[in-house]
Amino acid sequence: MRIASILSVALLVAVAASAEERKSQSQMSPKATEFLKRWELQKHVLALQPTRRDAPLRYLNISDNEVREIQLVAERYVPKVLLNISPVVTGCPCEEGPQCTEQVFIVAEKPGKSVGLQLSRIKNSWVVGSVQQWFLRYDTLRAQQKELSYERFYSAEGELLREFPACVGELVPAENTTASMPKAETKK
After folding, report:
1. How many angstroms from the chain centroid is the CA of residue 172?
2. Per residue in 96-148, pLDDT tens?
3. How many CA atoms lie within 13 A of 92 on its CB side?
4. Domain spans of the chain?
5. What pLDDT shows up at residue 165?
6. CB–CB of 89/58 below 8 Å?
7. 152-178: per-residue pLDDT in tens?
8. Taking the CB of residue 48, how many other CB atoms lie within 10 A of it?
9. 97 Cβ partners below 8 Å, 6+ apart?
């Protein structure tokens, strides 16, 4: 019986706190509301930061032709020395678009540090996806942060955050094959 009364008191406190929070959010100043929206967007962006993923793995990992294609794409963004290509994982965040089916994460060596780059398989080709492109632009802005005033950096960062890719379309399920033609293009 004590547990039931403790739970009911906790539920009442939670409901009251929730109501108070909704009331306080509706009474927030426009600046505070804008700050809260920006903070939520930053949390979302940070959750999608390109990184190595090890699941769910594609049934057949990576072909020699795919490795060559990945090396060609990577040469435009990172030094020519590739240290590692992660396993191919199926599925992409919806921000990459409905044509994205798989992703890999590569690591290359720059003088004094390692650099990572996420590639997405879109329309049967390995490319730097829209999320990784956005993060490359963000890294460029962050490199200029010391040269900019706080207001200019904050404004530029806000503009860039508003340009973060949004989810569009329906996701296409990934197939467990390597470098195959899409079903629409195969002959019967």
Report:
1. 17
2. 999 999 999 999 987 788 889 999 999 999 999 999 999 999 999 999 999 99
3. 37
4. 52-175
5. 93
6. yes
7. 999 999 999 999 999 976 545 555 444
8. 18
9. 122, 129, 130, 165, 168, 169
DSSP 188: -
Q: Give the pLDDT confidence score for residue 31 in this predicted structure.
A: 82
Q: Report how far residue 88's alpha carbon sits from residue 125's, in angstroms, rounded to the nearest whole number.
A: 13
- Count of beta carbons in the 10 Å neighbourhood of residue 188: 3
| Nearest of 169, 55, 68, 166 to residue 103 by alpha carbon | 55
Question: What string of DSSP letters covers 9-77?
Answer: HHHHHHHHHHHHHHHHHHT--HHHHHHHHHHHHHHHHHHT-------SBPSS---HHHHHHHHHHHHTT
Asked whether the whole model's pTM tops 0.70, one would answer yes
Paired tokens of 4: 């039931």
